[in-house]
Design brief:
With 110 residues, this protein is α/β, with parallel strands linked by helices. The protein has a single domain, classed as Rossmann fold (3-Layer(aba) Sandwich), CATH 3.40.50. The protein contains five helices and five strands; from the N terminus they run E-H-E-H-E-H-E-H-E-H. The chain is globular and about 40 Å long.
């Protein structure tokens, strides 16, 4: 079975130290990229995990190796980032809350 190329978006404590190292522990998981607008964090974790780094979601979405994203950005940005990956045909794992209101949550799950 093909490995699933995953990008972790948002490299705060949970994204960088919990989600990113967990991806390669999942059967058929492959951490191919990390994404954060903070270049220092993106460089730190791309070096640590031996993967590509992106400073924007738009940049990451151009990478054909990314099949899915683990979204660990601050809550107010969950909807925006999730919808960009969904519209690009990518799978997502989104931290809670899915959106800041029921309307956003309904759009994400539909």
């Amino acid at each position: 079975m093909k490995k699933i190329g995953v990008c972790v978006v948002g490299l705060g404590f949970v994204g960088g130290q919990a989600h990113a190292p967990s991806v390669n522990k999942i059967k058929n998981g492959n951490l191919v990229a990390v994404c954060d607008m903070n270049d220092k964090l993106a460089t730190k974790y791309s070096t640590k995990y031996g993967c590509k780094k992106y400073l924007s979601v738009k940049e990451a979405l151009k990478d054909p190796d990314i099949d899915a994203a683990v979204i660990a950005v601050p809550n107010p940005f969950h909807y925006q980032v999730a919808m960009e990956f969904i519209k690009a045909g990518k799978h997502i794992l989104l931290e809670m809350p899915l959106g800041v209101d029921l309307k956003q949550t309904d759009k994400i799950i539909s």
